[in-house]
Amino acid sequence: MKDITTTQDIQLLVNTFYESVRESEIGFFFEEIAQVNWEKHLPKMYIFWQALLFADVKFNGNPMGAHFPINEKMAMEKHHFDTWLSLWKSTVDQLFSGEIAESAKSKAENIASLMAYKMEMDTKLRKL
Ligand code: HEM
């Protein structure tokens, strides 16, 4: 199996991942809570992952900030992030193997864990 080396690889990875996300128990965050426009969201995610894995483009979005409005409508809890991460890891493993594939999993794990913490704090502070 090959490693993640091209922008096409990233597109395949991201498309496959969100196909399973949409069908999973966290799909409603995208479909109902945020009512995501997939034609806009997917290309944004290609750039995000390309910036993280190849460092040859800049991501101009706001990866953490984008999640606070969603968290306000429906708390994003640790178990949601566990589902997100396990889908991400299994999608990577299903399609690729190598150093960059490993990095895709560990970077996602770090961000997911920080994001889960920030969302939990946000929920707690709003309840005060
Ligand atoms: C339970 C876990 C998660 C859920 C339910 C979730 C859901 C969402 C939703 C609904 C959006 C907004 C889409 C839109 O309206 O365009 C979004 C944006 C985004 N998410 Fe997540 N997300 C999760 C975890 C993560 C993680 C772990 C990462 C990074 C590794 C991530 C990266 C991003 C990025 C980069 C954006 C775009 C930010 C921008 O607009 O600048 N998400 N997410």
From TrEMBL:
It comes from the Bacteria. The lineage of its organism: Bacteria, Pseudomonadati, Bacteroidota, Flavobacteriia, Flavobacteriales. This is Bacterial-like globin family protein. GO terms for molecular function: heme binding; metal ion binding; oxygen binding. It holds the Pfam family Bac_globin. It comes from Cloacibacterium normanense. Keywords: Heme, Iron, Metal-binding, Transport. InterPro entries: Globin-like_sf, Globin/Proto, Hemoglobin_trunc. The keyword DNA-binding does not apply. The keyword Heme applies. Heme binds at H41.
